[in-house]
Amino acid sequence: MRAPLACRQPAPGSEAELAARWAAGVRGPLRLNDGRPLHVIFPGVPGGPSGPDFRGAMLDAGGDILRGDVELHLQTSGWRAHGHATDGAYAAVVLHVVAEDDRGEPVTHHATGRTIPVLVLPPADPGFPEAFTPPCALATARGEDPAPTLARLGLRRLRMKAARAGTLVASGGASQALYTLLLEQLGGSSNRAAFASIARWLPLAVLLERASAPHPGISYERAVAAELRGAAATLILRRAGSRPMATPARRLDCAATCLAAWFPEAASPRLWPAALAPGAQLPPRVAGIGRSAAIEITVNAILPVAVASGAWPADAVERAWLELPGPGVYGKLRPLDGWLSDGSRPFRTAALLQGGLLLHAEYCTRGMCGRCPLS
Q: Which of 145, 185, 251, 300 is the most exposed place for a label (fewest CB within 10 A)?
C-alpha cells in the first residue's frame, strides 16, 4: 500500500484519499477502538516505496505518548490481507488507521506480540477543513531563514560521511576508498551492498592492471567496464523496476567511464586522481554521467574521501561542499520542502539538501517535530 502525498485529487474512498487526510492533520475529537482518546501531535512523514505509510508519528493515546509508524487501510482486515502481521518492517507501527472496521477488534496484532491501537477515521467534515502546520513552517512564515541551520546540519552530514570514508582510507588508501564509494553510489538503494563487494573482490589496482593489458579493438574504458561486469557476473542483482538507463549493467558502465577518466592508462592507483586535484571543477564533467548523478558522486564519494585522506585542505572541501548545486529534491523531503518554502527553494544547494536529509532522519521521522533546530 502506498499513497503518495503529492496526489492532488485522490479518488474518493481510496487509500490515497485516506492518506491525504491523515497527512493534512486530523482534527479531533478522536477515539481509539480500545476506548482511549487520541490526540495527533505529529502525523509523521510519508514512508518510502515499501514499509509503513507514515514514519516518525507522535501521538497522545489517553496520556500515553506513542512514537513510531502509522499504517493505513480502507478496512481493518487489510493488515492481514497485505501480510503486515508477520512482516518485520511493520514491527514499529504504533497506530492502525482505517476507514472501516470490518473485524470489530479493539487492537491489531503483530507477530512480535505487540498490540497496535486501531483508529477508525471519521468522515471528513467539509465545513471544517483539516490542516497540520508544523512549527518549522510557522517559523518560515514569520520570515526566519532556514538556510543557516540547514547549512550547519549539511556540514555535520559531510563530517559523518568523511568519518566513514576515513575507515576505508585507512584500510585501502584514498583511491581505493574513492572506488568503493563510487560503486556504492552507483549501485543505488537496490544494489549498494552488492556493488561495494565488487571493490573488495576486484581492488582498484588489480582492475586497472587488467584493463591496461593489450585488448585489440577494445578501448581502455571498455576494458574497465568488461572487468567490472565480469566481477558482477556472480552477484545477485536487483533489476526489477530499473529504467533502461539505470540497469545494473548500465551503472557499471558509468563507473567504468568515471574510473577511466580519473585513472587513465599508466596512472598509479595509489595516487589521488589528478583530475580531482584541489580546486577541480565540481561536479566533475564525465561523458555519459548526468548532472544529478555527478553531484551525488561528488557528495557521497569525492568530497568525503578528499577530506578524510587529506587530498584536499579541509577549508577547500567545505567551500566546495557549500557551493555545490542541488541535484533536486528527494521524494521523502517534499513535505519538508513545502513547509520550508516561502517564495524560495530551501534545498537549492547540495549542502542545504544534505542538511534537510539529516533533519528528516533525526527529527521528522523520530517523532521529534517541534524540537528540531527549525522549530
A: 145
Rounded CA gap, 166 and 18, in Å? 46
pLDDT tens per residue, range 181-236: 999 999 988 899 999 999 999 999 999 999 998 788 899 999 999 999 999 998 88
Helix (H) or strand (E) holding 349: none
CA distance 306 to 316: 10
Closest CA to 87 of 54, 33, 119, 50: 50
For cell 508544523, name the residue: 134
State the pLDDT at residue 243.
65
Going from N- to C-terminal start, the domains of the chain cover: 15-132, 134-173+272-375, 191-269
- Which has the higher per-residue pLDDT, 128 or 182? 182
Task: Please determine, for residue 5, whether its predicted confidence score (pLDDT) is greater than 70.
Answer: no
Helix (H, G, I), strand (E, B) or coil at 81: helix
Q: Do strands 64-75 and 93-100 pair parallel, antiparallel, or not at all (unpaired)? A: parallel
Of residues 73, 149, 49, 177, the one with CA closest to residue 373: 149
**pLDDT value of position 328:** 87
- Helix 204-212 × helix 248-262 angle, to 10°: 80
Q: Are 298 and 282 in contact (CB under 8 A)?
A: yes
**3-state SS assignment for residue 118:** strand
Other residues' Cβ atoms within 10 Å of the Cβ of residue 310: 11
- Per-residue pLDDT reduced to its tens digit, 264-309: 988 888 889 999 999 888 999 888 888 999 999 999 999 999 999 9
Are 363 and 44 within 8 A, CB to CB? no
The answer to whether 54 touches 20, Cβ cutoff 8 Å, is no
Four-point Cα dihedral 138, 141, 146, 148, nearest 10:
-120
Distances (CA, A) of 55 to 88, 147, 300, 321: 15, 25, 25, 29
- Specify the pTM: 0.71
* DSSP states of 222-282: HHHHHHHHHHHTTS----TT--GGGSHHHHHHHHHHHHHHHS-TT--TTSPPGGG-TT--S
Q: How far is CA 36 from the centre of its chain?
A: 35
